[in-house]
Structures are given as structure tokens and as C-alpha cells.
Amino acid sequence: MIRRNRLLLATAMLAAFVLLQTFQAAAEEYTIGVLAKNGASEVITQWNGHGEYLSKATGISFSVMPVTFLAMDAAIKEKKIDFILANPAIVAEMGEKYGVKAVATMINKIKNKSVHQFGGVIFVRKDSLIEKLEDIKGKKFGFVKKSSFGGLHAGLYLLKTNGIDPEKDCLGYAEIGTHEQVVHAVADKLVDVGTVRTDTLERMAEDGKINMDDFRIINKVEDDFPFVHSTVLYPEWPLAALAHVKTDVSKKVSSALIDMKENSSAAQGAKISGWKQAVDYAPVLECLRTIGMKAGE
Predict the structure, then answer these.
(1) The pTM is what?
(2) Which of 165, 167, 172, 155 is closest to 121 using CA atoms?
């Protein structure tokens, strides 16, 4: 009789423990702060599916919150969010400052090609006398924005590590505005040389806006990356956990993202191929330190 009562008590305790764990998991709520580089509505449209996907895949409640570049630091410091989805420069800086850690790296989908890296392209008109990096000195140099990693930082790191500072060594150092505008500025001879993010030239060529044969790539890297590039390649946007997030939760999020299928509604809504194991973002931080710049939008 005593043995039977003990067995019943143990069973009841186990059931209560399982119920408590289930309740706690259901009660947990996590917020993913997404960099709102093109406005809050785009964040919701593009990334809300990820919140729904993670909620279902992990059994934990996730929601998505747009966060502007200027508000990101405070949101992390004050723990208004638990995860961030932002460009690698922001995550690298926040990792050093607040212990933010990437849990997965995005596999982007560009022109039906799946890539988890990007870089910079330094290019000139086909008829330009510029043949190598050294020739850029004394010429007019155009870039996207001072805050753009792909549209300046990557190329600037390449130039500075080769002894060239375009802001000092070039005849002109012009912030053009957008990637496409930089390409047109080179084509129209408004600047002699430009730098943009990888895939810009191919995308514009496919859209009929330019002819790739009208341009030459300076310091062209020959590898199996599907887009022309002059610089080393850097990892794509990560989803990262803030320091206060429990390790087991981070692991669940990482596993769920890595398991995401390309044809899932979450991936299609975000216009990506999926996610992979988080890679090292130290090269991004090294780039920023070398060129003396901070992360931008």
C-alpha cells in the first residue's frame, strides 16, 4: 500500500513538473528587434513571419519589433528587446559593447542565388586609365554613404590596408546616395571610380539599367562567389541574442532557424533562402577599427 502511494505521489509530482515547465515555456515572451532601415511597416511585412515561425518551432512566444538605427543601442542597453536582427557591423559593435552574440547567419537570396556573404566592388568605366588600386590616387572617388558597409567600409578597408586613403589621396571623395546612383555617376563620368555592395552591378544589368561590359573591376577577386567583388567577403546579417537570454533559449532559436526551409512562408516572406550556423563576425569589427568608423544603417 505504502509503495503504491509513493508511486502515485511520484507520478503526480512528475506530472506537476511537466505542467509547470509547459506553463513557463508558454509564459516566456521574447522580442526580436529588427533594424528598420526602410521603415517600420516593411519590418512587419518582411519579418513578422519569423516571429510566428519561431513561436511554433520552439514553443516559446516571439514577436517582432521595428527598431531604428538611432534607437538600437538604448533598446539593447535597457533590455527592451531580447534578440536583434541587424547588419553585421551593428551586431559586431554591440557584441563588443554589450555581449550580444550571433546565433545564426542569414542565407540571402539574390537573383535566385543563395549567398551568406557579401563584400564590396571597386569599379571604373571600361575606357578608364585606372588599372590597379594605386591608380585611384588623384582621381574622383564615389561611394554610397559614410554609414554603408557594403557601399564604403569594405572597399575603404581594402584601400587603407594597401596604403591608400581616398579621403586624402583622391581629388574628390563624394557621398553619392544610393548604390545605383554610384554606378550611374561612374558611367556618366561624374566620378572616376566607385564602390558599391556586391550584386549591385549584376542586378542592374539584369534589370536592363546597365551593361556589365561597360565597366571594369579593380582588384577583381577570382573565386566561386556568384558576384564580382574586389574586397574580402563578410558574413551576411545575423540574428543575435542579448547577453541576458538563456543559453537553452538561444540554442532553440538557432536550431529552429537552421532548420527553416527555403519554401517556408517565413523564408519567402523575408525573401531569403534560410539560415546557417552563426559564423565569426570578428572580421567585420576589424574592418571598422582599421578604417576608424562605426556601424551605420
Answers:
(1) 0.83
(2) 155
